[in-house]
Amino acid sequence: MRRVKGRAGDANTLQFGAQLSESAIRQIHAMLRDARAPLIDPTAGNIDACRERLNEAAGALQNLLGTLPHGDPKQNVTLAPPLASLRAEIGQVAVLLDSAAAFHMGWMHRAASMVSGYTADGTPATPEPARRVSLEV
């Protein structure tokens, strides 16, 4: 039986590439967990820290997507579980960010009603502009 040169190297390269991809996915997953942790207490500082960490994770994810081989069914099957876990982590971060935004929007709405009062039908009144100019002739 004749051996074709380069075949064993190609298989090793694919396996090594899959290991690197899995390692990169685990690193991005850890970055997302670090970003998610401060969102339990959605203060402005914590949200800003989360934003910085998410930007780092987005850059790492973009690099990873550029290095993933396309069209190899074996590697696609190998990377499917870690990528699904990564997708779930991104979903959890998105839910917490949406909740933090809703929380702060609710407080802004509440603060506006505290300043402006309520209308006759019980809904919060629209706040008046902070500055007005009135001219008399």
What does this entry look like structurally?
This protein is an all-alpha fold and 137 residues long. It has three helices and no strands. The chain has one domain. The protein is elongated, with a radius of gyration of 26 Å. 7% of the residues are buried.
Question: SSE layout and pairings?
Answer:
Blueprint: H1 7-36, H2 44-67, H3 73-116
Which structural traits does this protein have?
disordered N terminus, mainly alpha, 137 residues, 3 helices, 0% strand, 72% helix
Proportion of residues in β-strands: under 5%
What is the total tally of β strands? 0
Number of helices: 3
Low-pLDDT stretches:
1-16
Shape: elongated
Secondary-structure-derived class: mainly alpha
Sheet of most strands? none
Radius of gyration: 26 Å
* Overall average pLDDT: 77
The ordered H/E elements are HHH
Distance between the termini: 105 Å
- What number of structural domains do the residues give? 1
Q: Work out the helicity level.
A: over 70%
Quick synopsis:
The chain has 137 residues and is mainly α. 72% of the residues lie in helices and 0% in strands.
